[in-house]
Amino acid sequence: MDGNDIGKGKCPVMHGGMTSMGSSVMSWWPNALNLDILHQHDSKTNPLKGINYREELKKLDVEALKADLRALMTDSQDWWPADWGSYVGMFARTAWHMAGSYRTSDGRGGGNTGNQRFAPLNSWPDNVNTDKGRRLLWPLKKKYGNKISWADLILLAGTIAYEHAGLKTYGFAFGREDIWHPEKDTYWGDEKEWLAPSDNRYGDVKDAKSLSNPLAAVQMGLIYVNPEGVNGKSDPQATAYQMRETFGRMGMDDEETVALTAGGHTVGKCHGNGNVADLSADPETAGPEFQGLGWMNTRGRGVGRDTMVSGLEGAWTTHPTQWDNGFFEMLFKNEWTLSHSPAGASQWVPISIADEHKPADVEDPSIKTIPIMTDADMALKVDPVYREISLRFLNDFNAFSDAFARAWFKLTHRDMGPRSRYIGPDVPAEVLVWQDPIPAGNRGYDVAAVKAKIAASGLSVADLVATAWDSARTFRGSDMRGGANGARIRLAPQKDWAGNEPARLARVLSVLEPIAAATGASVADVIVLAGNVGIEQAAKAAGFDVTVPFSPGRGDATQAQTDADSFAVLEPLADGFRNWQKEDYVVSPEEMLLDRAQLLGLTAAEMTVLVGGMRVLGTNHGGGKQGVFTDREGALTADFFVNLTDMAWKWVPTGANSYNIVDRKSGAPKWTASRVDLVFGSNSILRAYAEVYAQDDNVGKFVQDFVAAWTKVMDADRFDLRA
Asked: Which of 93, 222, 263, 566 has CB atoms 3.0–4.6 Å from 404's, for a disulfide?
């Protein structure tokens, strides 16, 4: 609806504001670049500007908060009564479903931003009633205020829930900072309806590995797999194949998958005692009277035994508020048959079961109910690999408990980045390889002496800058992985990535590594310093005397500290900053540039100035000349923007991603360009930035802004500088 629609019986009023999402000013041009994903790096939406969360955390009474959470576990509220008088299952699920949206492919999703508070996650079908979990936590968020983020609070509540149930948890770290708007950068799929069939996500739905990247969930609005089976049709083995792929895409191996599935279903229950049609709208759609709560059952009491969530109905274990081995005992000591819940959902129930093994009703302990298993649960029994692991856990409860505690810690911390970002008294001492450990680096060496050796090395500006860039560009602000710290560019698998030009990289490292050894600097520091030296030389060639900021202290990771398989997902398939892509993709080169810029945490202006500067420095992959709009290659000039905006030139397509820049009068070719180059002149927003740097009076500003953006990328993973 547009803002001027006149409803029946209502007085007409004209207003000019585009006040609903249904009528975007850009909806006329659906293929336009979504630069909003860079604009969201702006801090304008943050009401806590000026408040340092890491400093606020120092004021938090952690033990008092944990005590309040333990008390909350059994403080049943009339508006949303606790099952069996315990919120253990509620808080475990709320935390799980926030953390469980994480995927390794691009590091997006997960729990490190509190994104579950906003659409679309707050209204995913799989997240039904997580809104109640957050609302139950509100009194504690209100009490502790800025000293605890929603992200930390939700995940801590889940951890305390398991502790309250009887699990010896592995640990917990604070340090997650909330966002204040929906994440516009995350692609969750192109389906137009919730729970649309999986087929469009797969090359072949029967081949789990054909799931489209970067997706991990099998259907729109799900965290992992459909609990009723592939496309809602029960087939535990087919579900197992999907589980292996989707859990793998969020960094879990087979043992972790079994532990998480079983441990997640050791507490709590499924809710489906009613009709899905009787639920109110999701939180994002519901009317003002619902106050941000959705999915309220409009029939009967709508709570307790009448609660509706997934549509499945029943608990998995005899004692659903206790941490025990009841899940595996229930799964393997009973035979199961396919049945349906009162809501009509497919679920497995035991063919026969003694009363003493039945879970009690959530409101009346004298009433016994039938336990259930989902298709994913049955997959643990049917799939040969999962079955072997499950039987081991059945016979060794301590092994199961330890495996789950570790997997739960990984699930809730995988997207936090390195251990240096962990805060709090319960941070485990053990260093885990999935945390991408990096030894502390030396800060006490002579930086000037290192720079002098680099300058005298004979390496070109392009060599120096490109190597530093390749080392740093792997950083992902989504899950805080990658970056220049650790110098993993010299290790497998990174040293062999096509985008890093392995032969050139080896040649440059053969010069830089001896400098590091001779000066006491880390290789990581020397690589970044080399890039800085190259930029200083290029700026001097352009007539500017600049010093690029540098902070020593990076460390050098070892091969043993590097999980090659885990790092494989960080490989860039394209890098518009160096005018390169590995092969042709359905997604345009400029869109891939935009995605990389977003993960690097860049604004649109910073992306623009970096591309323009990198071109004139001659850092194109393989020495390519596309976009090198200058006769002074190697000098840090604004020539890229000056010539891009000069109407003396004409832009002539010569291929799918190639153009000639020709003299408008004579037709003589001058330069070549890619789509990434020309988008800075064709896109109206990017052209506005390009024109700023093309102005005669902004030559100095261009150099300053390039240096600032460069430093931002080089220091993106220096969390030690922001402690």
From this structure: 263
For residue 32, the tally of other CB atoms under 10 A from its CB is: 12
Coil, helix or strand at residue 145: helix
Residue 40, phi-psi category: left (phi > 0), alpha (psi -120 to 50), beta (remainder): alpha
Tell me, yes or no, if the pTM score tops 0.90: yes
Q: What is the pLDDT of residue 5?
A: 46
Q: What is the pLDDT of residue 3?
A: 39
Q: For the segment 458-488, what is each residue's pLDDT rounded down to a tens digit?
A: 999 999 999 999 999 999 999 999 999 999 9
> Which of 49 and 476 is assigned the larger pLDDT?
476
CA proximity to 107, closest of 482, 612, 559: 482
Hunting for tokens 């840090």 — which residue is that? 636
Residue 80: is its pLDDT beyond 90? yes
Query: Tell me, what's the pLDDT at 12?
Result: 64
Q: Which two tokens stand for residue 316?
A: 């998995």
Bridge partners (DSSP) listed for residue 270 = 314
Phi, psi of 556, deg, nearest 5: -115, 115
User: C-alpha angle 180/181/184, rounded to 5°?
Assistant: 140
Question: Virtual CA dihedral for 409, 412, 414, 415, nearest 10 degrees?
Answer: -160
> Which residues does the annotation mark as catalytic?
97
What DSSP line would sit under 200-211, residue for residue? Answer: GGBSSTT-GGGB
Residue count (the chain): 723
Q: Comparing C-alpha atoms, which of 72, 74, 95 is closest to residue 86?
A: 74
Instruction: Write the DSSP string, 46-81.
Output: -TTTT--HHHHHTT--HHHHHHHHHHHTT--BTTBP
pLDDT at 27 over 80: no
**Tens-digit pLDDT profile for residues 144-162:** 999 999 999 999 999 999 9
Q: Please list, in sequence order, all residues whose beta carbon lies within 8 angstroms of the beta carbon of residue 439, skipping any fewer than 6 positions away.
A: 555, 556, 557, 558, 561
First vs last Cα of the chain: how many Å apart?
A: 47
> pLDDT, tens digit, for every residue of 300-352?
788 888 888 889 999 999 999 999 999 999 999 999 999 999 999 999 999 99
Query: For strand 574-575 and strand 580-581, is the pairing parallel, antiparallel, or unpaired?
Result: antiparallel
Q: Are 215 and 188 in contact (CB under 8 A)?
A: yes
The DSSP H or E segment spanning 36 is helix 36-39
Residue 524's closest CA among 497, 558, 567, 501?
558
Contact of 488 with 505, CB cutoff 8 Å: no
